[in-house]
Amino acid sequence: MSLIAITEVKKRFGDVEVLKGINLDVERGEVIAIIGKSGSGKSTLLRCVNGLEMIDDGSIMVAGAQLIPDELHLKALRLKVGMIFQQFNLFPHLSAGRNVMLSQMVVKKTPAAEAEAMARRMLDRVGLSHKFDAFPDQLSGGQQQRVAIARALAMQPMALLCDEITSALDPELVNEVLAVVKELAADGMTLMMVTHEMRFAREVCDRVVFMHQGRVHEIGPPEEVFGSPRTPELQQFLGAQLVA
Amino acid sequence: MMTFTVWDILRNLLLAARWTVLLSLVSFLGGGLLGLALLFLRIGKRRAGRLFVQGYVELFQGTPLLMQLFLAFFGLGLFGIDVPAWLAAGLALILWTAAFLVEIWRGCVESVTRGQWEASASLGMGYVQQMRYVILPQAVRVAIPPTVGFSVQVVKGTALTSIIGFVELSKAGTVVTNATFQPFTVYGLVALIYFALCWPLSKSSQILERKFNVAHRHH
């Protein structure tokens, strides 16, 4: 069975239908890149997977936890999928280490000593063990995003959702974050990432999903999607990316 | 005819100023507690609670404090309840203070970005946990300077209670003037005492604001 099963998902904001029946199954250990123009619904789809947006129709299952809009079900779902945001969203009033410890202690009731040990391991994994006591505004954007990754990992999710996680970074900081993601992929983490980093998608991902006007327009291994795009929309999108 | 020294006047005013201080403290603390309760209704999920607090705030911010004092003092009397001046004064000021604090604090909670809600939700936290560990700690930091600043308004607001006969600093000023016929000296001293109470508050509000702006990272 797939780890993430997205079936006939529809979502509308007011009169605008942003997702028009999405079907997508993600296997354990798979790395999926979602590409497409802004407004194609790719971020919305990702946000639905851990219940930041509610769906109007269809179903989303992650390892047996279903997306149902009440606090108990949402919590069960969110314990299975972590999320990394474009704007990092670290808690500015807590040190990096405390950021990683907080949800373990509050949500999982992990004792402080254990949570701290886990936080140190996770910060080490993203190469920031020396920044345990630093506050978010003392860190660069790339470092903040790596702390955010450590924070999500500390909850030991089965999958990670990455919503344009390098888009707010200065160009020279993009690679340190992508390197961490690459390592996660190599370690077998299941990843769904909305990204504009086409080179990275081509190198690291197992499958690429091209979304267009609220539908999965093309899907396949990167060689296929990037090498021989079938539809004019994808050809145009990739062409525009090359020029940009 | 008796003569009064400046010290005589000042001593009597200072004795009455104790009531101004006490009434300010009661109003501020009581208003703060009530304001906190109203805040949770105002930012809560239940529509009825939000509308109630919205109406409450509009009512108390949209009418003069003086009218509220009159209503508390004479209005309850209509129902046969004999309200002493201190009770009417305390009650009206508490309700009035709460109406302003709840709006100040609501703004502070809403100043915490959406991303903080989303990040904490995506980590599995429930509403109460998000509030307690993520949102309120940040909102409190924003709230302290304007809250301390508003306490100045409370101190000055107590002056109005003299009209319903509560003997605090302003009322004492009138009484002393009637005895001494030295209005300029008396009211000058009254103003100085108010200033001595309010100035440290507004100054500390400024200092706190600067402190939290520069170093809001350090806990």
From TrEMBL, chain A:
GO MF annotations, alphabetized: ATP binding
Topology with respect to the bilayer: Peripheral membrane protein
Subcellular localization: Cell membrane
Superkingdom classification of source: Bacteria
Alphabetized UniProt keyword annotations: Amino-acid transport, ATP-binding, Cell membrane, Membrane, Nucleotide-binding, Transport
Record-linked Gene3D superfamilies: P-loop containing nucleotide triphosphate hydrolases (3.40.50.300)
UniProt keyword S-adenosyl-L-methionine, yes or no: no
Protein name listed in UniProt: Polar amino acid transport system ATP-binding protein
InterPro entries listed in its UniProt record: AAA+_ATPase, ABC_ATPase_HisP-typ, ABC_transporter-like_ATP-bd, ABC_transporter-like_CS, MetN_ABC_transporter-like, P-loop_NTPase
Family of the protein in this entry: Belongs to the ABC transporter superfamily.
Annotated ABC transporter domain residues: 4-238
Organism whose genome encodes this protein: Azospirillum rugosum
Automatic annotation (TrEMBL), chain B:
Membrane-spanning intervals of the chain: 20-41, 62-79, 85-105, 139-164, 184-202
InterPro entries associated with the record: AA_ABC_transptr_permease_3TM (IPR010065), ArtM/GltK/GlnP/TcyL/YhdX-like (IPR043429), MetI-like (IPR000515), MetI-like_sf (IPR035906)
Region forming the signal peptide: none
Location relative to the cell: Cell inner membrane; Cell membrane
Topological category with respect to the lipid bilayer: Multi-pass membrane protein
Residue stretches making up the ABC transmembrane type-1 domain: 17-205
Keyword list, A-Z: Cell membrane, Membrane, Transmembrane, Transmembrane helix, Transport
Highest taxon above the source species: Bacteria
Gene3D superfamilies (alphabetical): MetI-like (1.10.3720.10)
Family: Belongs to the binding-protein-dependent transport system permease family. HisMQ subfamily.
Protein name, entry field: Polar amino acid transport system permease protein
Organism (species): Azospirillum rugosum
